[in-house]
Amino acid sequence: MTGSDGIKATRARVQAILEAHVGLGRAPGAVALIGRGAEADAIVVGGKATESPDAMRRDSIFRISSLTKPVTAVAAMMLIEDGQLHLDEPVDRLIPELANRRVLRRIDGPLDDTTPAKRAVTVRDVLTLRFGMGIVMAPQDAYPIQRKIAGLKLVGFGPPDPASLVAPDEWVRRLGTLPLMAQPGDQWMYDTGSHVLGVLVARASGMSLPDFFRERIFEPLQMNDTGFFVPPEKLHRLAGAYRPRGGVLELYDAAADSAWKAAPAFPDGAGGLVSTADDYFAFSRVVLGRGLAGGRRLLSEASVIAMTTDHLTPAQRIGGQPFLDAGRGWGFGMSVVVNESAEGLPRGALGWSGGLGTSWMADPQSDVTAILMTQTMFTSREGPALHEEFWRAVLGSISM
After folding, report:
1. Shortest CA distance to 365 belongs to which of 36, 32, 19?
2. Please, are residues 227 and 210 in contact by the beta-carbon 8 Å criterion?
3. pLDDT of residue 232
4. Between helices 168-175 and 192-205, what is the axis angle to 10°?
5. Helices 192-205 and 68-82 meet at what angle, rounded to 10?
6. How do residues 269-289 score in pLDDT, each as one tens digit?
7. Exposure of 236 by Cβ count < 10 A (0-12 exposed, 13-18 middle, 19+ buried)?
8. Disulfide check for 354: which of 28, 282, 340, 358 has CB 3.0–4.6 Å away?
């Protein structure tokens, strides 16, 4: 952003965009936060739910889904610094269920048509989503592997499901009965690696994933409204969640009866968190501050550099589309812009989106963070027009 006039102009543009989309019924409400350095300005419009008169608030709570991934990656890097994990060690030491992998010869082939894995799955593989399993870009029951995953009731291959009754140890046991879809390290495959990483963090630390997040990340950063569920005394601040269908918003998860109102059996390290715009801004400061936020060092500068460096080959970036937009690679838990993106994101910018309606960007060059929290689910990887227009308005204010 270029001075106070630029900030004011950006705020005015964002306010107009949010009000226009809310007025057209494309979202009940939204919270946008735009910051440079440690200071942030919020724009709040609309309501928390279509069926309620309650106004949206700056501290409204949202299901941030895949914005959980960077948090889990930070947790893993903390354990690497503690010496409890090592980037290039096999996960077998802590997750023996994933030892001695077999790999499908063809993604559409029978489950017994496999070949041995060329090597063990490593911590780096799950951090970079290249461990050999993930969401398949095909109709849900097109291939035998997809039908088996559905039969095992495995989260990790679609939207977050806090109502799942499969606890982490049982989840990873069931996962271990499946062949990999690709050789370890060969392909970028979305989502499932972060679920494995959450189990790995818990086992390496000897703590539950919620306890580790709370003690090592949320409490130091004063992220008091972030967790895997919304406690009863805060439930009134949870925004409703909606799915666009046929030109109207269909209720997906009501606040009063939310699937996020109780602690889940499976704390989902890929997409399970709820949070607020200000809480996530505090987290973003760790990334932009090279591990330092609020006067406290959570990570070394070297760890943050590793997290925010693209680790994919050009072929892996292409193979990762449509999840990875053109111009984006992947670090640890987040995308990294390697060439100016279609939206105009500058090279080196970091961030990701949550499919239930949230997105985050941090630009190390300008020290700008931008966060958009909505309740409207993405129905395509590109995201709703509201998000696209928001990013164009913000990016126009970043000094290149």
Report:
1. 36
2. yes
3. 96
4. 130
5. 40
6. 999 999 999 999 999 999 999
7. middle
8. 358
Q: Average pLDDT of 376-383?
A: 79
Q: Could you tell me which residues come within 8 angstroms of residue 203 by beta carbon, excluding any fewer than 6 positions away?
A: 94, 95
For residue 290, what are its two tokens? 């090279």
Mean pLDDT of 233-262: 95
Contact indicator for 91, 123 with CB cutoff of 8 Å: yes
Is 72 within 8 Å of 269 (Cβ atoms)? yes
Looking at residue 392, its pLDDT comes to: 85
Task: Please state, as a whole number, how many other Cβ atoms lie within 10 Å of the Cβ of residue 105.
Answer: 11
58, two tokens: 């700056």
Given a contact cutoff of 8 angstroms between Cβ atoms, the answer to whether 217 and 74 are in contact is yes
Q: How many residues does the chain have?
A: 400
Q: Give the confidence band of 397 by pLDDT, cuts at 50, 70, 90.
A: low
Rounded to 5 degrees, φ, ψ at 30 are: -165, 155
Question: If pLDDT is split at 50, 70 and 90, which confidence band does 400 have?
Answer: very low
Token look-up 């679920």 returns: 195
Least confident piece of the model among 185-189, 193-197, 347-351: 347-351
DSSP 169: H
